[in-house]
Structure formats: structure tokens, C-alpha cells
Amino acid sequence: MAFVFVLVYVICLGRGAYAQETVLAPERAVPVVTSASAPTLQPSPRLPLVRSQQPDRNLPIFLSAGELSGRPDLEVSGQGNVEFYQGALFVRADRLHYDITQALVQATGQVRLEREGTIFTGPELLFRVNQFEGFFLNPTYRFAATQAGGQAERLDFINDQRLVVTRGTYSSCPPDGSQDPPWLLSADRVRLNMDQNEGIAEGGVLRFFGVPILGAPVLSFPVSDERKSGWLPPNYTFDTRSGVQLGVPYYWNIAPQRDATFTPSIVSRRGFGLESEFRYLEPEYSGELRLNLLPGDRLTRSDRYGLNFNHVSDAIESTQYGLKLLRVSDDDYWKDFPRNIGSSTPRLLLSEAQVSKPFGDWTAYARAMKWQVLQGTDPLAKFEAPYERAPQVGLRTLQSVTGGLQLTVEAEVNRFVNPLGTLVPTRVTGTRVHSVASLSRSWQNPGWTLTPRLSVNTASYDLDQTMTSGPWAGKRNATRAIPTISLDSQWVFERDTRLLGRSLRQTLEPRVVYARTPYRDQSGLPVFDAALKDFNLNAVYAENLYSGVDRVSDANQATVGVTTRWLDPSTGGEVLRLGLAQRYLFATQRITAEGTPSTRRLSDIYFEGATGLIPQIMLASSVQYNPEISRAVNYSNTAVYMPAPFKVLSLRYTGVRNATEQISVGGQWPLYGPASGNPASDPLIRRMSTGGSCTGTVYAVGNVNYNRRDSRVTDSLFGLEYDAGCWIGRFVVERLSTGLSEANTRIYLQLELVGLSRLGTNPLQRLKDNVVGYQLLRDRANPQTTPGPYD
Where does the pLDDT of residue 54 fall: very low under 50, low under 70, confident under 90, or very high at 90 and above? Predict the structure, then answer.
């Protein structure tokens, strides 16, 4: 019966169908349908694929051809553009014979087999449909997952998850004329196991423009983006302090939630080393351990190591905890191995343990922290380290109480000790018990908000040394309590307007904050964690000039400011923002950063602005202006030009009067070749759509930081990227200052074979961290949007 169904279907497909003339009985009279008015089925050049979650063998078979013949329920043969369908399986050939009893397809001529995007073509195919087994002679193939493929003498299908390729090749590049593609992986025999995500190549050799660059008797590799245990491509780098470093990583896929990587390496000037990384991701906790060992460093004649361990729990029985260990072997480690530190402060390494647990509206927490201070031998480069907390125990809450009042409380006990490496080993140490509490009430209405607040900062000190000045001179214990009252009023006005021909919505947001804090003499108390806040649009409204607990500035002041924004009403996006604020003092301020009373009535003026109003350009600026000297004392100006994907230029100019002045210039820009911003000229898109040869675009990428005050380049990074569509080459040079007269230069060289792997040392994270708006060349499907003014 299956043959009858196929035959009827083919006849209908080839000749069309029409309804016979029919006349119904008078009691059910309807308009007579004649052959002249009957609908006609039109031939379709190709049947649609039937997608189903069921196995292919449980689905019906469709067969079409220019000429069909056969025996019912036994076999059927087709000639002339034969097409065979079953579920996601499609076969096209010049000639095809299907044995129904054995579900066996024999196809010759120009044979094409497709399944779920993967394509095989060749002159002869023998294939059992139900078992998905058989062989293909002299096939070419392209895999959907990688958009890469090759040719072979023979391809054997073991089942729907396993196949064997005999004397085959693999590449994502098409050949240029009669020559081989730019990169080509060839092997005597390749076994692919999709279930285990494993490919094993025997006698594999990787060639780049005909030159062997990697080879082994047996190569193991993943066949998809899934993880797989095995050796990874080698990485290599060069820097001026260590020389050439070569490493061969081994990846161990321990479990879906755990893995490890071990990289034995050799450093030309130092000796043999081992880099290890272990990661785990459980439902309630996760972590990462990195250990870098270099025993017997030939330059320093010592054992070198770097340890970085992070562990966090989301919530185990409502308790959260975390552990961080960051340690290195010596003070010069950050200079010799900067990429192994894993910290934004490479000379100040933090290790800490912390735990927290909620109790209703309250949260209890504890922490212990310890610093490793890398001072070095240069006296001009030494710095004072912060205190260690051993331990810190506290309670905090944020809750609503009667009558709309909001209560916040933070109470802590801290033990402050000096870390090893502090410049002043006799610096005062001791225990502090403090509480910072506030009670506020907020009235909110459309267009305005009014918030009065009462806060109290209380601290009690038990020191290891006696105080030498102030009210507590000669004593080791002191207690003080400082209240603050404030009133915060904010308003928002809106109107529709037009700017540069655009319909926008403008807001006007004035804000006034009054604060009153009485003077309390704090001159003899230690400074464990207090620091003067940066002057910005948030800090200018703050009641206290200092962060931390140990210093509270006296105040009888009002801060007045206004912000205006232009918004796109259709998206809500901010097109332009301008802000201005200044503090007015009604009385002399006696607690100041300079240590002397300030009689100034007007503070510095803070201004900031940001806009994307000009197409393809983002601008941002912030200025702290001193009206007494009519000068800007702190400023930051940024401009980003991004006309298209993979085209970005940035300029940043920052400075602090009489301290520092720095210029930063960076970008990513095509120098030669098709512009990647135009999809029609994109090398990858053109190669995939037309099968043309790999053509390339050269990009320049980099960033330079220049210190005008010292007239020197502090840090710089420059590189070239060549995108040939099916392979990418990267050459990057990075120079990092490690002192006023010291620097370390590192060279990154990477070859990315699209659809296979990356060889060499990866500079991509350094490019992302240092170049504003940098975009990975393979991210063509989701080009990065224009960066914000503060990105």
C-alpha cells in the first residue's frame, strides 16, 4: 500500500488533479461543480520538509522523479531529478532505487543528502533509512553547527550519531581555484561520535597556506560547541621580562557542573611551570581555583607561585557565605606575571572570608580580611596600605515603621590591625564599635518629593596605643556621638519641545538639600576607614564630606542644583543631559580635608553633561570648577565616534589640578579591505552566501594613555587584526608601566581558524578592557551598539 500511495502522489504532482462532474439529488441541491470550474493542484518543484520529534523511521516517505517504476510494497526506482523525503532526511540524485522491505536507498549520479542542515554530496550513496547506516563514496560535506566541511574518499554512517571519514579534509574556507583552502585539516581516518561530542583524527595534520603548523598521530577534538576533555591548541607569548612562553593546555570535562584545565609550560628565561584552573557551578554554590607554579625560577633563583581562589554560596539554609584567597610568592610577581594576578589592584591583594544570615528584618554578618602588600624596593613607588579587619561583625536593617517612617541601622564591631608591608608599623591599631542609624519620612507626589532625615553616627574606640592629641590625649579609650538633621526636596517639571528638528520631552529637575551637623572635635581619633569623597553630582548633595565612620564633617549648609534632560518620547532614551550643583555654607566648617577651618561660603561648582544628539557621536563631560581661582580643578571629557560596527574612535582627557593630567586615545578601525559595517561586503557573509574565496580586511586596534604632567606614555596597546572570513590573524603589542623607569612589553600572536579553534595567546580580553567599544570580529550577527558616554 505504501507504493500505491507514493505512485498516486507522484501522478498528482506531475499531471495535476480535477474533480469529476457531480450531480446531487434534488433534496440536497447545491451548485453543480463541473470539471471546467474545479480547482487544480499545481506542481511543486520541491516538497516541504516534515519536521517532527519522532524518529525518522516512524514518518511517511515521499518520493518524486521525472520517471518512476517499481513493484508494490517491494521496491521503487526513479530517474531524473529524484527527490526522497522522510522527516528531516532529504536525498536528491539522478537515479535512486528504494528497497521498501529493507528500507535501503541506493543513489547514483549527483547525489545530495541533507539532514538538519548538514549536507553531503557525492557520486554514490548506499543508505539504510531505518538504521541510518551506510556509506558515501568520494563525498563532500558541510556541517551545520560549524558551517565548515571538506572532502573524503569514503564516509561511513554507523548510526545517526556516529560516522567515520576515511582520508578526509576539513576547513571553513573554500579552495581558491585549483589550490587548497588557506587552512586545511587532513587526516587518514576520523571517527565522529555526536553522542559523546568527540572526534578522533588519526594521522591528523593542520596546514596553513600549505605549511604544517600542528600534527599528531592522534588528535581529539569536540564536534560541537559542547565541552570535551582533551588537549587544546598550544598557546605562546613573549614579554621582555620572561622571554618566550609556550604552553599546551589539557582540558578535563569532569562533569556538567565541574571542569579543570592544566597547562604545562616552558618559559625561556625562567624554566618550567604549570598553570591550573578548577571551576565548579552547583545549584547553591560556585567557585574557581587558579594556581600558577614556577618552581626554581632561573632569574630570581626562587620558587614562584600565584594563588587565586573564589567561592560563593547563593543561599544554603538562608545563609550566604564567601571565601576569597589571593596570594603570590613575592613583591615582584605583579611585574613578572601581570595576567596571573586577577585583581584590579595588582599591588594590593585581598583575601577575605564572609558570612551573612537574615533574621526577619535584620541581617547579621561577619567578615575577616587580610591584605598582601607588594611594596618592592623602589622608595618612590611605596604606598600606605589600608587596615585589615580581623574580624568585622555587624547587624543591619532597612525597614518601615509606624507612620511611614523609614529606619536604617548599621552596627558593627571591628578589629583593625596593620598588614605586613605597611609603611608605618607603629600606626595606631585597635577595636571600634560603631552604629550609624537614620530615621526618615518621605512625602511623594507627582512632580515633587520631600524627605526630612535624622541620623546619628556613634563610635567607641579601644586602642592599643594612647592618643597623642585632641580631647583624649594620653588615653586609649574614646566615645563620641554626632547627630545630623537634613531636608531633601526634589522636583520634576516636564514639557514637550523640539531640538535640532527632533520632537523631544524636556525635564527640569531642581533639588535642594539642607544639612545641619554640630561640630565635634575628632582631631585625636584614629582614621581607620574614613576618606574624603570624590566631588561629583552625588557627593555634592551628601550630608558628610567623608566616607566611612571615623570622620563626620560639621555642616550648616544648603546644596542647590538642577538637572535637565531631553528624552525621546517614543523610546524613553536620554538624548541630552546637563547638571549643575553648588554647596553654600552658612557657617565656618572646622572638619576639613586640609585640617584647617574653611571660611569659604561657596563650594566648588560641579557640572556634568552627556549627549548622543549628534548622530554617531557620544559626548560626556564633568568639571569641578573653583570660582575663587576661576579654574577647573578636576575634569573629565570623553568623546566616542562610532559610525558603524567595527568602527570606533575614542578620546578622553582627564586631570586634577597640580596633580595629574592624562590623555587616552583608542579605537578599532578598518585600514584596508571591505568594510565590515556593510553586510553586502562582509567577507564571512559573502563567503557563506556565494562560496567565493576568502578575502580580507585589515583592522587597526589600540589604546594609548599619555601622562602630560610627566611627559610620558604610561600604558599602551596596539595591534592589527586581519579578517579573511574563514580565519582571523591578530598581532597585539602591550606595554605596561611597572614603575617610573620600568615597563613590561608583551606580544600576543593569535590565529583563529573559524569553525575549528584558536591558536596562540588570546588578546581579546585585553582589547575589551582597554579599547572603548571594541567588538569581536566574529560578532557580526549581533553588532555592538554605540557605547554610552560613560562606558
Answer: very low
Can you say whether the dihedral through the CA atoms of 161, 164, 165, 170 is positive or negative? Answer: positive
> By C-alpha distance, which of 587, 575, 581 is closest to 502?
575
Q: Residue 152 — very low, low, confident or very high, per pLDDT cuts 50/70/90?
A: very high
Q: Which amino acid is at 347?
A: R
pLDDT, average across residues 130-156: 87
The residue ranges of DSSP E strands in 627-659, in sequence order, are 631-644, 647-656
User: In this structure, which long-range contacts are made by residues 280-289, counting pairs with CB atoms below 8 Å and at least 24 apart in sequence?
Assistant: 281/257, 282/257, 283/314, 284/313, 284/314, 284/315, 284/316, 285/311, 285/312, 285/313, 285/314, 285/316, 286/311, 286/312, 286/314, 287/311, 287/312
Q: Which residue has the cell 600534527?
A: 215
Alpha-carbon torsion (423, 426, 432, 438), positive or negative: negative
- How far, in Å, are 85, 467, 609 from residue 11 at the CA level? 17, 105, 74
Alpha-carbon distance of 748 to 228, in angstroms, equals 26
Contact 409, 396 (CB under 8 A): yes
Amino acid making up residue 605: I
CA distance 403 to 739: 59
Pairing relationship of beta strands 243-247 and 405-417 according to DSSP bridges: unpaired
CB–CB of 777/723 below 8 Å?
yes
Rounded to whole angstroms, how far apart are CA atoms 384 and 371?
12
Per the structure block, which three cell numbers stand in for 90? Answer: 532529504
The length of the chain in residues reads 791
Residue pair 509/489 in contact (Cβ under 8 Å)? The answer is no
What's the pLDDT band for 123 if we cut at 50, 70, 90? Answer: very high
Q: Of 217, 207, 209, which is closest to residue 185 (Cα–Cα)?
A: 207
Asked whether residue 182 carries a pLDDT value surpassing 60, the answer given is yes
- 520 CB-near residues (< 8 Å, 6+ apart): 480, 482, 552, 554
pLDDT, greater one: 16 or 537: 537
* Model pLDDT for residues 638-647, shown as the tens digit of each residue: 999 999 999 9
- Please work out, in degrees rounded to the nearest 5, the angle formed at the alpha carbon of residue 574 by the alpha carbons of 573 and 575: 115
Q: 538-547 — which CB contacts under 8 Å span 24+ positions?
A: 540/581, 540/582, 540/583, 540/603, 540/606, 541/488, 541/511, 541/513, 541/581, 543/455, 543/484, 543/486, 543/513, 543/515, 543/517, 544/457, 544/484, 544/517, 545/591, 545/592, 545/593
Q: List the beta bridge partners of residue 252.
A: 260
Give the tens place of pLDDT for each residue, 363-409.
999 999 999 999 888 787 888 999 999 999 999 999 998 888 999 99
Instruction: Answer for the pair 7, 67: CB distance below 8 angstroms, yes or no.
Output: no
Residue 54: partners with Cβ closer than 8 Å, 6 or more residues away: 87
Q: Band of the pLDDT at 327, cuts 50, 70, 90?
A: very high
Q: What is the pLDDT of residue 401?
A: 87
Residue 183's nearest CA partner among 637, 753, 592 is: 753
Give this prediction's pTM. 0.78
235's grid cell: 598557546
Name the β-bridge partners of 119: 114, 142
> At CA 68, angle to CA 65 and CA 72, rounded to 5?
130
Residue 691 pLDDT: 36
pLDDT tens digits for 95-109?
Answer: 999 998 888 999 999
How would DSSP label each residue in 603-621? EEEEEEEEE--STTEEEEE
679: helix, coil or strand? helix
If pLDDT is split at 50, 70 and 90, which confidence band does 781 have? very low
Q: Confidence band (pLDDT; 50, 70, 90) for 225?
A: low
